[in-house]
Amino acid sequence: MNGILNGMRVVEGSAFVAVPLAGLLLAQMGAEVIRFDRIEGGLDAGRWPLAPSGQSLFWAGLNKGKRSVAVDMRSPEGRELITRIVTAPGPDAGLFITNLRVRGWMDHETLSQYRKDLIMVTLSGDRHGRPAVDYTVNPGLGIPDITGPEGYDAPVANALPAWDLIAGNVVVSALLAAERHRLRSGIGQAVDLTLKDVAAAMVGHLGMIGDAVLNPVAREKSGNALYGAYGQDFVCACGNRVMVIGLTRRQWDGLVKVTGTGDAMDAIAAASGLDLAEEGNRWKLRDVISAILAPWFAARELTDFASEFDRKGITWSVFRTMKQAVVEDPDLSDANPMFSVLDQPGLGRFPVPGSPVEFGSHRRQRPEAAPALGADTEEILADVARLDDREIAGLFDRGVVDGPRRQARPAA
Amino acid sequence: MNGILNGMRVVEGSAFVAVPLAGLLLAQMGAEVIRFDRIEGGLDAGRWPLAPSGQSLFWAGLNKGKRSVAVDMRSPEGRELITRIVTAPGPDAGLFITNLRVRGWMDHETLSQYRKDLIMVTLSGDRHGRPAVDYTVNPGLGIPDITGPEGYDAPVANALPAWDLIAGNVVVSALLAAERHRLRSGIGQAVDLTLKDVAAAMVGHLGMIGDAVLNPVAREKSGNALYGAYGQDFVCACGNRVMVIGLTRRQWDGLVKVTGTGDAMDAIAAASGLDLAEEGNRWKLRDVISAILAPWFAARELTDFASEFDRKGITWSVFRTMKQAVVEDPDLSDANPMFSVLDQPGLGRFPVPGSPVEFGSHRRQRPEAAPALGADTEEILADVARLDDREIAGLFDRGVVDGPRRQARPAA
Prior knowledge:
2 copies of one chain form a homodimer.
Chain A: E1 9-13, H1 18-28, E2 32-37, H2 57-62, E3 67-71, H3 76-86, E4 95-98, H4 108-111, E5 119-124, H5 134-141, H6 143-146, H7 162-185, E6 189-194, H8 195-205, H9 208-214, E7 230-235, E8 241-246, H10 249-259, H11 262-272, H12 279-284, H13 286-298, H14 302-311, E9 316-318, H15 322-328, E10 339-344, E11 348-353, E12 358-359, H16 377-383, H17 389-397, E13 401-402
Parallel strand pairs in A: 1-2, 1-4, 2-3, 4-5, 5-6
Antiparallel strand pairs in A: 3-13, 7-8, 8-9, 10-11
Helix pairs in contact in A: 1-7, 5-8, 7-8
């Protein structure tokens, strides 16, 4: 693989979404990412969604293109091995990302005794050491309270683990920032963040904390309306549902023009005394605006206006199920250079995404399938932990490590 | 400011959420981030939420700690100025992030004529050049279809612009990866990504594309249940709603133990023939499990069990509104070192987040307020564009640039 992070080696000890995602994003930019797991598989080895075979699509999705080493971490020998792998020499190694809550031998303080310039990025739940997952962070911040149909009286959780995905990306940038600093100063460090702080920072950045503190009226559920300006979903004559956006002035003018609703919009602006050129006024008048637009969509099939909307640069989308999306949207197929259709043993054949980032300096890397658990144990023990064949064979024999191919390596 | 990215200079030309967020995250790690805007303010200068004064909390939230230069980009002089600022010399400069769709003078091809090793990261809507925003990307991928109460027959959009937040973070790591490469090779480049590809990659990484392609039965709405294992919300006797998690074996065992529901769980396991130690079985039996747990919560007030849940390491949370969260949760106040309470002119006083990442090598930086539009125009023209006082005065006089303080700089 020839990626922009070529030469960098990152060790990952992780479960759930965020840190595995961080390792994946690094791997798909060309880093060598070594993931270690317990011999019986990590906490997320069997997580849903599953393939028809029963194997985890989730695990395979988040561990693409990594190297896998399976180690019994309860044994002192296993712990020593992990320590060797994490702290192995090399100017672009000594990088460790984790969310495992292991005290003692896996602390930065302990590990950095073996490699002084180790960079260890640790994601935990909250700053008090309490566990937290996406599904608990989100309700505590009030997002489910403002999600869902207008007037619905219960909170609605995200189906997407958004905070996990964001935190995983923060782990990547934190690691790259710390490595940049090490390159200049020679100094390694512990880098710490929590899922809850990531989420709290983001809602603060969006102005939601200021809003809650300063404004007497709390934000309420507003269904599928785009908050603060104009954007709404409509059902067409064919039963399809579309989302249309009038966030910027240009988007709004385009939408009014293409639907021929200018006179009606002028009338409600005059009646209300609110200038619809201001996005906040479109938010205030969204119900009236939608009442004007709804008949336009109800009278038309999707095919009546889809091409024209695209041609005129309208910002819009059709609502799909994921099953429809994989059939109907070529951007989710290998017509999109980000995707490759891979045959993955035990899973099946489907489009698999590589990095969403296209670096001019490097050809796009095709995604690689996830390894079998322990697929690279032998090689990593030899190449990274620098053990000889006898030592490696002994570790396999004593059950300290495992892998799919347990035969001894041929003598060099 | 003394952050881990000290010395790095990034120029940002942006609107909406993702790229402004990227600039903010870089600034909060210590980079000097120069944001340029039109003299009348950018597309998002007045975006909701607003402070009681009518000023944008959104804009202030996403532009904290940046330097602001206000330029008339319709004028050739203004364009030349932006070009000078973007391509100014310095080993840790020549970094440009943008989502503005400006062809010609703001292309990487054109700009890199002035600085060959320029790194320019461009986020656009989709790979076909069509516009896209969070609210259109999400429906197209089927997330609203699986969000919301079980049985509810319409899609439910995210209240959180999750894809924007994720894409902003991807911009940061793409920039750092490209800068790392430039440091080794001397080579700059164009780096391109789209909001839609970021989203499509993430749903693929989570296994959702494989699920949609391979499995005959589509994932459906499942209310507030944690997908694939166990997690559910319950209403307590006091009216509070809590989320409790039984995702891992340890979380599940803890939940069963603390609620004393072991016998009942054993009974449903025996009746169904499904081992509840397997997380997928907890998902399949979630309704029966919830029926067993619901009376436990209905009979108790939050204060009856909150401390015990924390003491026993249960993964759980109370549902709050954002207004409750800012009052009740000390993690959203300056009791959390990530937050500082700032007085911001025109906005008010409220807790403002800094970086969620704690680097061992650097003291946590306090967040800085957003600049007034054009607050740094004069300084940037002098220090970055290297213009002399006469040239700067001329630009102000001709209306090519603007700032809150239009007085001439004292002669040096």
